[in-house]
Prior knowledge:
- The protein has helices at residues 39-51, 87-104, 122-132, 165-186, 194-208, 217-222, 226-232, 276-279, 287-302, 347-360, 374-380, 392-405, 438-447, 482-490; strands spanning 2-6, 17-22, 61-65, 74-79, 109-113, 155-159, 211-215, 240-246, 256-267, 307-317, 329-331, 337-339, 365-370, 385-389, 409-411, 429-430, 455-459, 465-466, 476-477.
- The chain is of the alpha/beta class.
- The strands form four sheets. It has an eight-stranded mixed β-sheet, with helices on both faces. A six-stranded mixed β-sheet has the order 1-6-5-2-4-3, sandwiched between helices.
- Helix 5 (194-208) runs parallel beside helix 9 (287-302), helix 9 runs parallel beside helix 14 (482-490) and helix 10 packs parallel to helix 13.
- The protein is elongated and about 80 Å long.
- The two termini are 20 Å apart.
- The mean pLDDT is 96.
Amino acid sequence: METVLSHVEPVALVCDALILPVATGDGPLIDQLPVGLPAGLRDGIAMLAKEGGFAAKAGSTIVVPTLGLAPAARVVLAGTGKPGRSAADRVSRAYGAAARAARDAGAKSVVLSVEEIPDSDVASAIAGALMGCYDYTAYHGTGRRNGTSIKRIEQVTVAGSGATQSAIDRGRAVAGAVNLARDLVNEPAATLTPASFAERSKAVANAAGLGIEVLDATALEAIGANAILGVGKGSANPPCMIRMSYRPKDGGDGRVVGLVGKCITFDTGGYSIKTHDGMLEMKGDMAGGAAVLAVMSVLPALGCPVAVDATICAAENMISGEAFRPSDILTAMNGVTIEIISTDAEGRLVLADGLVDAARRGATELIDLATLTGAIVVALGDGATGLFSSSDDLADNLLAASGRVGERMWRMPLFEELEEKIKGDVGDIKNSGGRAGGSITAALFLQRFREGLPWAHLDIAGSSRFERANALGPKGGSGVGVRTLLSYLLVEAI
């Protein structure tokens, strides 16, 4: 999709759809419409909005044909709601929903009017529109919709006093990162193996100018990463650990943020096998690794001021004569022995080695992302991320970042009393403490591998995919965590 800048007044541009933001509680709707629109058209839009019950709630839209009264064939009103939630969140949702509505109405060329929003939110508007129009079409064949063409927006023009090339570049970078994560989550597991994920990571690193190193099974054995090796033993596709690094041009402030991503490219549950329904979405069990890769992909373009190291732990949890078993003992990189209670609690095993690896590479703080537990979905429902942390400051900063971009996150406790549930009978610790408090005991397990560093764990099992289409994209991979981490690293709305 081409995105261009225009310094012409938005209402004067010829296009299939002109997107205009309108807010709740800012007086009569007609007063928010550009005076450049013909008076009759302004009256008609205001009347149709009123009759249609359009109240400009965040993410609400109404599409009005102009019937030749304006250069734009349609006007799409994008509701930005009222102050309360972050402006960047409301703006991105408004423009995302409006862009989707314009596309579904058949528009191929769209003008985003940013005249009416603060300059600081323009990049969020652009990112929202580009995320909202995302579709995963890599496997659409001739039978799709009886052979009819898919509706797509081909050109987005950004116009208004706050429109700048810098804002366009920033918005495109953020949306591109989120949509990269979505592509990876939506990719079938047959084609996205640990090795192919590593190859894609290399392509991203080369394009962005990042450092990268891929450790194969032999290299993992050499550094004692036996937890990830144990998880990957049952698959014909061997595991690997992907190390990436970014350094700011000015050297940074001495911090090195270590990002660690769970990247189980398919999870059968191993011998603790999942049900049929439980296995249906397990191609997405690598969403944490996808988010980490996506974040790394745009750090140079966004001028991130903080050094970042990434460790992506890629494996496939399959069943074979070589697969690990319940009652096995695995020894992680830091020497902690792990008693296997469930082979379906494999994500915390690969993260154990990943966290230690990131710490040993020089991280000053650790943040891991993982589709880790069904228990967090029970606790928080769909669409929310559970946050566990050893550091109040780190937790507060991540919660602030998630609030700026509108990715719902809730801090969960680390009850020390539940440590007893993962105390090993034969090994040092068990990899499962049972159903009760399952997300907490999983986090307590991971805490054993933070190597004394400030650490946060983001359980994205309930937020890694959209269960239905919404303002920011269709059903499928959500790209959750990308904007939160970027906002955390840049300390601003994204």
